[in-house]
Amino acid sequence: xxxxxSTLTNTVLTIPAPGETALKEKPYPVCxxxxxxxxxxIAPVCxxxxxxxDHQFEWHDSPEHLGHEGVGTVAEVAAGSRxxxxxxxxxxxxxxxQECFVCTQGLSPTHCLGIPYEGFDDGMAPQDVxxxxxxxxxxxxxxxxxxxxxxxxxxxxxMIMTLPDDLSFEHAAAGNCTLGCTYTAAEETGVKAxxxxxxxxxxxxxxGAIVNAIYRGATVVVLGRNDYRMDLCRQLGVAAVIDxxxxxxxxxxHAFTGDRGGADVAFECSGAPYYLDRCFTGLRxxxxxxxxxxxxxxxxxxxxxxxxxxxxxxxxxxxDVRFRDRDGLLRMLGDAAVQRNxxxxxxxxxxxxxxxxxxxxxxTKNCGKIYLRPAE
Length: 376
Ligand SMILES: [Zn+2]
Ligand SMILES: [Zn+2]
Prior knowledge:
This protein is α/β, with parallel strands linked by helices. Helix content is 28%, strand content 24%. It has two domains: 3-176 and 321-373, Quinone Oxidoreductase, Chain A, domain 1 (Alpha-Beta Complex); 181-317, 3-Layer(aba) Sandwich (Rossmann fold), CATH 3.40.50. It has helices at residues 48-54, 101-104, 134-140, 169-172, 180-188, 204-215, 227-236, 249-257, 273-282, 304-309, 326-333, 336-345, 355-364, and strands spanning 9-17, 20-27, 35-44, 70-77, 88-91, 152-156, 160-162, 196-200, 219-223, 240-242, 263-268, 283-291, 314-317, 346-351, 369-373. Strands 3, 4, 5, 6, 7, 14 and 15 form a seven-stranded mixed sheet that branches. A six-stranded parallel sheet has the order 10-9-8-11-12-13, sandwiched between helices. Helix 6 (204-215) links the parallel strand 8 and strand 9 (219-223).
């Protein structure tokens, strides 16, 4: 135990009101068995810019509990830990039960049965959930550290992985919602060399989906309109950027898919019906649509007969990295071409003390992935 832990505090990012951020000093985290305390190097921005704008929270967030992505250095371990102070790690989100069929089959912790989605009311969890990020401070009896946008973060040992010595924090930090969730989506949809992949509604998740598909040797066509992001897509190496408002947008996709008559896989990254419709339409028979974006918990209408059955489309979605994908993901993050693309899509980096600037930048959409640095 570092002798400093009794005197240290934890600096935590808060969003007390719409359009406002503030740093708050809280007690240093309490680390129980099976947990470590991490000195956070990078806490990437995910849904927090939207929270900063709307002050509407997802079930696991609150004004003083923000951030789920991150990398850093182990600062404290509990007795019997398999980790050591000084280990460089990536933190995957949540605190899954390790016992249910999702956890024991190597699936995604975000979909662990410890999180009672079936009991959610309008997308919100009951307040007594101990799985997921919400439970981390509870089970440790800690007043801080359960979330990523903090100087010190508590993480369950089964949710962290040691980084190879030659993998920088900047490249590893792409392993959460940018290249990580999309790695699992690419695995689940079986993207392979020679496939044509549509990516629609491109934010940083879409950029991550593009990097994954290119890494696998697929031809990527993007449906999008934001000039800044379309330029990033071209730099990443996509085959085409198609304006989905063009009258011939579908013919432009078909120019890449030959007699298959559509793309093999579509990654829809916005949740907007405008893009969902086009992703469905752009797929070939027996194609797969993977949803990685959403707009609240609202509905979307699809024809069971004309789309799902007659055209035999598979549709699923998710937002996490499966346990079984972590090794492959870390190998991908070590690839030189992938690292070059991470450098392209990571467009901004801010000290956590300038989080308002980071979120304002996120809301302009003239950005790719944005990193926050809690120690600065
Ligand atoms: Zn995220
Ligand atoms: Zn579980």
